[in-house]
Amino acid sequence: MLLGSIAALGALGAAGCTRVAAASGNGGDLLDRLRAQGVVRLGIAGEIPFGYIDKDGHLTGEAPELAKAVFKRLGVDRVQPVPTEFGSLIPGLNSQQFDVVAAGMYVNADRCEQVIFADPDYQMLDSFIVRKGNPKGLHSYRDVVAKKAKFATGTGYAEIQYAVEAGYKQSDVLIVPDQVAGLNAVEAGRVDVFAGTALTTREVVKKSAKAEATTPFAPLVKGERHVDGGAFAFRPTETRLRDAFNTELHQLKRTGELFRILRPFGFTEAEMTDLTAKELCGQ
Prior knowledge:
The chain is of the alpha/beta class and 283 residues long. 30% of the residues lie in helices and 21% in strands. It contains eleven helices and 15 strands. The protein has helices at 30-37, 62-73, 89-94, 109-112, 141-146, 159-165, 179-187, 198-204, 239-255, 257-262, 277-280, and strands at 39-44, 52-53, 59-60, 78-83, 100-106, 116-117, 122-124, 126-131, 151-154, 174-176, 193-197, 211-213, 220-221, 224-225, 228-234. The strands form four sheets. Strands 1, 4, 5, 6, 7 and 15 form a six-stranded mixed sheet that branches. Strands 10-9-11-8-12 form a five-stranded mixed sheet. A two-stranded antiparallel sheet has the order 2-3. Strand 13 (220-221) and strand 14 (224-225) form a beta hairpin. The radius of gyration is 18 Å and the shape is globular. The chain starts with 29 loop residues before the first helix and ends with a helix. 45% of the residues are buried. InterPro entries: Ectoine_EhuB (IPR014337), Solute-binding_3/MltF_N (IPR001638). Pfam families: SBP_bac_3. It comes from Streptomyces graminearus. This is Ectoine/hydroxyectoine ABC transporter substrate-binding protein EhuB.
């Protein structure tokens, strides 16, 4: 799913994006309603390790587990998953099918026009799934273009735009549901490369005899090295809930509890971050 400094504690309430329509004067009443209900509905996309239902039918993943910790501190004891396709998360949020997106969603300018984000709970580089030995020598999006490689990535993934920015024709991109489908496409020879996050690619290839993940790298955006950050998304009117979430998130960062929550899902110290949503929204 870019490095910066943590905003001062007093500025946490202003850390999110403001391009969307102005919120109501009191910042929304969703937090009060969630406390009264005792449950928050989480939009998830069934993507390991960000948010998914495990083989025993339990909700887990880095975002749901973080949501459990943060919302408990906010006085909301239960979380309820609402699975949907990744590309439907923002429309589903804004049509009130769920209360918050908890899917490790990257913060970018386009999405900041539609929702407001908490500050990122992780940062992430990209990586490719390629055939063992990386026969085409693919280490960047520019390599994919230069070597005329068959390219795939996931539905709604930021990697689509990174490939297009490098010169890949968007209509030639093979869109697959997730990283497992991407691995299958590479193993079957239908594509030369699948692009995803460094975390998802390194996890999905662990048991593959035919494919491997490349060394993580930062894609280029407008010629500049870009590191992504993943965060929770909220409806534009719910600034009060977003700000309360941010306050608890930053406390978990300071104590080290955030890393303890994320580490079981394959996250490393290098993927902890002090990026802000405001930076990633381009403000």
